[in-house]
Amino acid sequence: MKVIAASLLPITWLLSSASEVSGSFEKRRSDRAALRRTQTNDVDLPHQGCEGLLNDLEEPHEKSVGEEWASNHPLSLYDYENEQGKSSAECIDGFAGGYPCNGVNLLSMLSLNELNAAFTSSVNTSGNDVWGWTYDKREFALMGLGGGTAFVEITDPYEPKYLGVLETAGNKYGSNWRDIKIYKNYALIVSENSGHGMQIFDLKQLLTASAGNNVWSESARYTEIGQCHNVFVNEDTGFAYTVGTRSRSLGGLNIVDINDPLNPSFAGGYSGDGYTHDVQCVIYNGPDTPYLGREICFASNEDTVTIIDVTDKSDIKQISKKGYPGARYTHQGWLTEDHEHFIFNDELDNYSVATKTKTHILGVESLGNPTYVGFYEGLSNAIDHNIYIKGQYLYQANYRAGLRVLEVNLPNLKEVAYFDIYPNNNDNNFNGAWSVYPYFDSGTVLISGIEQGLFMVKVKLPNERCVDTRTKFKKGPKKARGCFFLRKNERRRAKFCPTERFKMGTKEKVQICSICCKTCKDYCTSSS
Q1: Residue 323 and residue 48: Cα distance in Å, rounded?
Q2: Disulfide engineering: 170 pairs with which of 2, 195, 445, 462, CB 3.0-4.6 Å?
Q3: b/e map 53-91, b = 16+ CB within 10 Å
Q4: How far apart are CA 451 and CA 57, in angstroms?
């Protein structure tokens, strides 16, 4: 879908300098700060979206996959007995088990009940953030929960091994908000839980752990902060950026030196543009040559993207900040790999009035003069939450719309795959997918669900899919039967390839051929 360009938007929104918009920004920030001050310490809400999440919380969902689900849905194409894992499901006819999908297979999943199994006392069981760790080709998922952090080895993504949990610091019941990042072989974990600080956990302990309900203790804890909304780690420099803190830097950038991970120390801070909700910091390698090699942060600051030079931690300088049309809550974003664009989301721009999901694009070829390019309008009304970019693809966790994968061909974005973990609807509520992690070398992608749990999926990108070049099948009443027959006989036993006798539509034809590609190379070809 074509991006709606800034040139087509009302001129009143096309503001070029921070001075033109600072008044309205500061008013909204003042209002939000007042709202935060009215909350209790137990529920000190960072912003309106957090309040929406609390209002929308549901009980943990049952799996829409597996033996029990299959027995309750006998008319489904889900062939449980021939799947590779107990909770795996191939995406066929737009569904993987009970989950809507396109171009994404479910490898396995763990429910919230399974992820919370190791806790010995009553805790907040909801799901939140997710991140990944790789050690010597072994892959691990780190899933944030209300009561702590769960660890799962997914080296075999069809047979995940639940290892146990690290209990939360602070109030032991926990919090709905937790964020996790990695530095070398250490996990860094922050939370909105009162008195939490930043937990540091030596992940090598997982390498010799048996599967089961292990309960670990933190290896170290940074206590110069308490509540904290997010953390970003620049692995190239060894600095952690904790943002949305209560006790340092007024909620802005609080910078921690983690080069010695077990002995973290305060390195600097920046609060010149108020509260920072999320941030990405990089060694800049883009087209703005005066900044090459410098450490630059791109901060999502409630209603602007704010660009900050943090190279000298004792002399941090704001380079610029940029607003955009309809700003409600600048939530999170990620740089394209060429550092020319920052693609970000606004968590509230379609919350009060249901409109299509908007993914915003900021041109940052000039760090001192960023330009608003426009926005991509999605296919549903779901609220967008977290996005990450790998290569030419953007992976979105869009709450009730689940994982959405967009091809980045700027100025255009195009949806090419999805996996929806909230099958009921794609409404603009705070349920479903919290985050996504697409960076494993194996290609396994993680999705975390607030009520659902942890999903391991495999995305078939357009250039990895096969199409049948022999003939065009016509739609017919036997398409489901033919697909079911083919899966049992071809995919598992490799006896024959599909022929004209299976009357299927285009979607089924592509799916069937993708199953047969390994044994039918004469008839299949890679195609975008």
Answers
A1: 19
A2: 195
A3: beebeeebbebbbbeebbeeeeebbbbbeebebebbbbb
A4: 8
Quickly tell me which residue has 């943090």 as its tokens. Answer: 310
Give the separation between CA 447 and CA 403, rounded to whole angstroms. 7
Which residue in 283, 135, 270, 307 sits closest to 208, CA to CA? Answer: 135
Rounded Cα distance between 327 and 345, Å, is 10
Q: Is 471 helix (H, G, I), strand (E, B) or coil?
A: coil
Q: How far is CA 298 from CA 286, 308, 407, in A?
A: 13, 7, 22
Within 266-326, residue ranges assigned H as helices are: none
Flag whether pLDDT at 215 surpasses 60.
yes
Distance between CA atoms of 446 and 441, rounded to whole angstroms? 12
Q: Which of 28-32, 391-395, 448-452 has the lowest mean pLDDT?
A: 28-32
Phi, psi (deg, nearest 5) at residue 23: -60, -50
Q: Over the stretch 466-517, which tens digit does the pLDDT of each residue have? A: 544 333 333 433 333 333 333 333 333 333 344 333 333 444 444 444 444 4
The pLDDT of residue 5 is: 54
